[in-house]
Amino acid sequence: MDQTALFKLSYGVYICTSWDEGRPVGCIANSAMQITSAPATVAVSINRVNYTHKCIEETGHFALTVLGEKSDPKLIGTFGFRSSKDLDKFEGFGYNVRGKLPVLDDAIAYISCKVIGKMETPTHTVFLGEVLDCGNLKKGKPMTYAYYHEVLKGKTSVNAPTFIEDAPKGEKEVWVCDVCGYEYDGEIPFEALPDDWVCPLCGVGKEHFHRK
Questions:
Q1: pLDDT in tens, 145-192
Q2: How many domains does the structure of the chain reveal?
Q3: CB 77 within 8 A of CB 118
Q4: Is residue 44 located within the same domain as residue 126?
Q5: Are both 190 and 103 inside the same structural domain?
Q6: Are residues 48 and 142 in the same domain?
Q7: How many CB atoms lie within 10 A of CB 55?
Q8: Nearest 5°: CA angle at 4, between 190 and 66?
Q9: CA distances (Å), 187 to each of 87, 164, 193, in order?
Q10: What CATH number did the domain enclosing 207 receive?
Q11: 6-41 residue pLDDT tens
Q12: Domain carrying residue 182
């Protein structure tokens, strides 16, 4: 079976948010879609190991922040590769409460929902949400998962529904960010990069990279 055939399905890049006793939490989601138009209903797939999953279960609400191609890539590094259980992911990023849920400012649209149903899989829960509020925040193209991979050179979190383990690389030297999984294989040797060089995806320093 060639699982790369699944790459032909289309995905976006979203930040799914909720509340943890009044504290905003969130994680990256790439599997979200509109189910019906009247009443407006969307679905999102969240891994059960994600702390945000627990918060959606407890509050019965979630919001989707729709990232654009110009959104700060550090949002993906922070919300996609760290846990809200241990970190205030919203620190340093502007957000507002929209439809009673936290929504990141650096985005093109948002959708706030009340959970009205769910479907369980061995690893993920697909939450069905009735749209309570939604709106556009700024102009721009929605970020697709293809754009994230091909242009930003981003990696897929192991918790994502679309995660497939990479095939072994060739002899070219590759350095990997231990925070977000970004792989540096540029023409300039990693050791020759300036000391203040940072991961273009999540913003951490060279000390967080290791040779693959």
A1: 777 767 766 666 555 555 555 545 455 688 888 888 888 887 778 887
A2: 2
A3: no
A4: yes
A5: no
A6: yes
A7: 25
A8: 75
A9: 34, 27, 10
A10: 2.20.28.10
A11: 667 778 899 999 999 999 999 999 899 999 999 999
A12: 175-211
